[in-house]
Amino acid sequence: MKQIYALFFLIFFFGCKPETKLTNMKEKVVIAHRGASGYLPEHTMEAKAMAYAMNPDYIEQDLVLSKDNIPIVIHDIYLDDVTDVAEKYPEKKREDERFYVIDFTFGELQKLNVTERFNPKTGEQVYPNRFPKGRGNFKLHSLQEEIELIQGLNASTGKNIGIYPEIKNPAFHHKYGKDIAKISLDILSSYGYKTTNDKCMFQCFDAKELERVRKELKSELFLVQLIEFPEETKELVHLASYADGLGPWYKQILDKKVGEKWQFTTLVKDAHKLGLQVHPYTFRADQLGEFSSFEEMMQVLFFEANVDGGFTDFPDKMGQFLATQ
């Protein structure tokens, strides 16, 4: 926890008063993807504290259940690409050579060290120019712990930064008799996140599960349907019957570039006609793809394609860009 407190000075460095919020484009939503993951290991409390200091609108939490049903903030159901689990618990490796969050109690998970994302087969860091792999003393934490950090900072700074949880692989959890959706929603409700007015957007890639969240579990939260494959965009009318927003891979918005001008698919326009907000993933300053600069990427997607917000590993850069528009 010492690292978390040491990072709190960043709140003052970036500005702790509500009126110092970087972005004045209120209709464009800045979502800190796994925290300030461009600077610190993803989904650590330190990355979340740093992200908070950068004044995003929301901070994201990916959720996976532990053996004892605690929602753990981690990107995937596996542990071996962001922790030292292979060294600490070699006996818990499954036949597929992977280590699963669901096989560990919360107490066991807290003994692991978290590091910058790496390839578990080669040991190579995925983003080589980010925080050095194996450095620091970062730990896993629960959804409850992160909510208390964000709500506590909201209280002490006067801001109202929201949360943006995603339940990971609910079908996998159901196989083990675990209802990650209900467990997560109950925790959110206990902390005051119940309706669309409560600064919480709830997301999932599994369309059947997200529809269940709305219709069976009767959640009144702002629901965002994440989509990965182009064919999923054909279901927008049905999607709009239970979801409030759409989270596509940004490449699903791009069509082709003619000269210096980008042309787009109809995805954003079609979603807007149905009343859906569009928050594409992921804006990375160190993984530009088709773009020559991070500024070009943001300009094209925010103002030419007209998306409503975006997930970014660099919330400071996105906020600063929007503040100049």
Topology, element by element:
Layout: H1 2-7, H2 9-14, E1 29-32, H3 45-53, E2 58-65, E3 71-73, H4 85-88, H5 106-109, H6 143-157, E4 162-167, H7 170-175, H8 180-190, E5 201-204, H9 207-215, E6 222-227, H10 236-239, E7 245-248, E8 254-258, E9 261-264, H11 267-273, E10 277-278, H12 294-304, E11 309-312, H13 315-323
Parallel strand pairs: 1-2, 1-11, 2-4, 5-6, 6-7, 7-10
Antiparallel strand pairs: 2-3, 8-9
Q: Count the beta strands.
A: 11
Describe the global form.
Answer: globular
Distance between the terminal alpha carbons, to the nearest Å? Answer: 38 Å
Strand content: 15-25%
Mean pLDDT comes to 93
Element pattern in H and E: HHEHEEHHHEHHEHEHEEEHEHEH
Low-pLDDT runs? 8-25
- Helical content (DSSP H or I, runs of 4+): 25-40%
Number of helices: 13
What Rg do the Cα atoms give? 19 Å
Structural class: alpha/beta
Largest sheet: 5 strands, mixed
Enzyme class: hydrolase
Domain GP-PDE: 28-322
Keywords: Glycerol metabolism, Hydrolase, Signal
Catalytic activity: a sn-glycero-3-phosphodiester + H2O = an alcohol + sn-glycerol 3-phosphate + H(+)
Which tags fit this structure?
alpha/beta; 11 strands; 325 residues
